[in-house]
Structures are given as structure tokens and as C-alpha cells.
Amino acid sequence: MITITYDDKKYLLTYTRETARALQSSGFDISEIRAKPNVMIPMLFRGAFLANHRDVKTKVIDEIYDNCTARADLIAELVSMYQECVDSLFDETSSGNAVWEKS
What we know:
The structure is a single chain. 45% of the residues lie in helices and 10% in strands. By secondary structure, the protein is mainly α. Strands 1-2 form a two-stranded antiparallel sheet.
């Protein structure tokens, strides 16, 4: 989780499976972040607000991003957080009781 303080308000940025799915449904593709940074980076940043700050307007989110320092490090951390969320779909350490087998 990333905490950003802007105008005396704290924002907790994170991704959940639900927010990652919403981000992908809106056209986000992590593999295109270098090819289409003007589209993918803002989507990645805005998507991190969905879990805890869904009601923050896009204009405010963009203003926050424009005022962030060390953006390359911020983007790298967001990419890592997003990827961890997606990778959790393949997590083998689940304690669930559903057992599957090939017939």
C-alpha cells in the first residue's frame, strides 16, 4: 500500500482483485506501459485509488499525480503492487477446501 498526503488529506493506494479486474476491463494492459505511457500510467495511477477512494474525481487524482515527486519510483511501486495482485490469482498457498481433478 502507498500513502500519499495531498492538501492535508491522506490517500491509501492499493489494488485488489476487483480493482485490477476493473482496470483491465477499462483497457489497461501492463505490457503496454512502455509503449503507451501517456495512456497506461494515468490509468495505473487512477486505478490505485479505486479500492479506498472510489469517489475522488479524476481531475483531483490527476492533480495529485502532477504534484508527486520521484514519479519513476512511484510508477515502479504501482507496477509491482498491481503485478502482485494479479499474481495472487495463481497463488498455490490457498487454504481453501475445493479440490479439483482431471476426469
